[in-house]
Amino acid sequence: MKILVINAGSSSLKYQLIDMDGEQVLAKGLAERIGIANSLLKHKGINGEAEIQKDMKDHNDAIHMVLEALMDEKHGVVSDLGEIGAVGHRVVHGGESFSASALIDVSALKAIEENIDLAPLHNPANIMGIKACVAAMPGTPQVAVFDTAFHAKMPEKAFLYGVPYEAYTEHKVRRYGFHGTSHLFVSHRAAELMGKDIKDVKIITCHLGNGSSISAVDGGISVDTSMGLTPLEGVIMGTRSGDLDPAIIKYLMEKLGLTIEEMDTYLNKKSGMLGLSGVSSDFRDILAAANEGNKRAAIALEAFSYRVKKYVGAYAAAMGGVDCIVFTAGVGENDGGVRAKVLRDMEWMGVKFDEEINATKRGEVELSTADSKVKVFVIPTNEELVIARDTLALAK
Ligand code: ADP
Fold this sequence. Notes:
This protein is of the alpha/beta class. Helix content is 39%, strand content 20%. It has an 8-stranded mixed β-sheet, sandwiched between helices. A 6-stranded mixed β-sheet has the order 11-10-9-12-14-13, sandwiched between helices.
């Protein structure tokens, strides 16, 4: 079966068409600037690539352009929409309504809509993508795969915040966690690489990208994770603050004369590596600046790596040990400097890694030395494949 994977953002839409016989990516691409001037579709398939500039006033237009590109005579990969057996949608927030992927019907869509207040930036875009696909391909099974679902079995002691219990029971305030498909994918792959059943291993997965989160995966279950009610909590990120003393919010709002909305923007868009370094949210720019002697860029990298190291230590304590540490996503897969800062001086915890391999090898690679008690891997993540696999299972 061929499965279309859709990841809809507010003004963009990423897609992949995967042939599940052999899990081969037939085509992938990105529709950008939806609803904005100069919208653009970038399409890359096994039969060629294309950049198509055409107005896309909404997600319906974007989906139609994607489907046209997939069926195009020159660079297309299917001749008929009927060849697409099912569509899998990434949905950011499933709240407590979904602990697994779900076939989309009227009640599932309503439940996703009910979680909009938990993810006001993401769920509305995901819903637009779903509705556009339902309209364009009526009768084709549509599946929602949630960022939060992998964390749904987290114990209450890990997901509760220290606020009145009614905040949880009446207002759904709890830790949910995100990047679930990525943590699931790399933890399963790590167990495979160790030659062990995932039920028998304790793994710490570090998804370090523009947004970053760390998870403690014990026996295949996410027992704790660094992101919380929203993706703002946890390690320092590209533009998000991560953990902070909640009193800072009132203090800075008064000092800077900010409204609640402005404070939200300050913490989500102006903080993190961008705010600390004053250079960029992109680790490549920050590293280049640090190498040229920019002190703020250098301390931003130190602060980021230190925060990741603290989570690794905390999660080893939470699980009563750790058998494996995994790095993934843009920074985790590519930035050996950050990985080295996290992994150095961890021999006390049984972590020994090869500095040379860490600095030079790319792709899926083991960083731990033969005498390291804890295995350390870099594993490129593949969230689309997880979405496609779940979609296939449910569509069947
Ligand atoms: P997103 O959270 O947007 O999916 P990614 O996982 O794609 O993010 O990660 C994007 C980040 O990865 C970029 O902001 C950049 O900082 C970092 N990155 C990508 N390539 C490299 C590299 N070669 N060296 C260091 N950092 C990199």
